[in-house]
């Protein structure tokens, strides 16, 4: 029907075991092919679902890459000894967010 608003629940999608098998496992290799190329890119719907698309996708990807690589090049990031690892479930609220956790940033030489 014309004018119908469709909201996509991306969380349900990204937690679907039928699509990902083990969505709760951090396994970036699921997106990396044999020769280091991006694989299964069309399964990632973070920036669009259907015909509409986020116009900020390129900017967001570049900025995320720059910030992450700058941090990882300069610091070794780890879990403090004796502290629990971050919780896997999310804190409910207007937007879901991680529960607080501690990390150690050790400057690389
Ligand atoms: C990680 C960062 C971002 C994510 C995950 C994201 C995700 C999305 C998604 C899912 C949509 C809806 C697309 C649809 O209708 O199916 C959207 C729309 C949009 N995004 Fe982003 N976005 C991000 C960053 C940005 C940035 C940096 C900008 C601007 C500089 C931006 C500008 C917009 C605009 C203007 C729309 C509305 C487009 C329209 O309705 O035609 N986004 N984004």
From TrEMBL:
Keywords: Heme, Iron, Metal-binding, Monooxygenase, Oxidoreductase. Heme binds at residue 54. Its cofactor is heme. GO terms for biological process: hormone biosynthetic process; progesterone metabolic process. The keyword Transferase does not apply. This is Vitamin D 25-hydroxylase. Pfam families: p450. PANTHER family: STEROID 17-ALPHA-HYDROXYLASE/17,20 LYASE (PTHR24289), STEROID 17-ALPHA-HYDROXYLASE_17,20 LYASE (PTHR24289:SF20). GO terms for molecular function: heme binding; iron ion binding; steroid 17-alpha-monooxygenase activity. It comes from the Eukaryota. The keyword Heme applies. It comes from Folsomia candida. Belongs to the cytochrome P450 family.
